[in-house]
Amino acid sequence: MSLESLPAEVAGGDVTAYRRALGAFATGVCVVTADSTLGPLGITINSFTSVSLTPRLVLWCLDERSERWPAFCEAERFSIHVLAAGSEALSQRFARGIGLMEPHEFERVGEAPPRLACAARFDCRTHDRVQMGDHMMIIGEVIGFENSDAATLTYHRGRYGVAGDKA
User: What is the pTM of this model?
Assistant: First the structure.
């Protein structure tokens, strides 16, 4: 398999046009949580995908420019929360900055990472980390999960939307 060269406008540094083109792909919106030496953290992502059913593996990607890079790269456990429709404020809350969580924002269940209200949650143990370009792919082995029928939050061309018909 070979990769095609990037178009001249992208290869030449037009990151904005490239990001706009990527924005044509509608995605779900998730918040990943983990414990760190600073305390519980959250980060908004839209790079969540299933990798394998057996074993249960998922992955997400972390930008190396993120202030949360060290904490999430070192975390051995994390939870991925698929946000329910109407959770735009939660998405925006963890989209930028340090992402330290306040005690009223999450629940604790045993030794699991911080838990948020969501449509679905995947509790993971870090399986692998792979540096790719300016992002780290973090692959998690799913050790527990919960699901609901709630409609989910989506993101497309810079705007939030909804997938599903149950709110």
Answer: 0.88
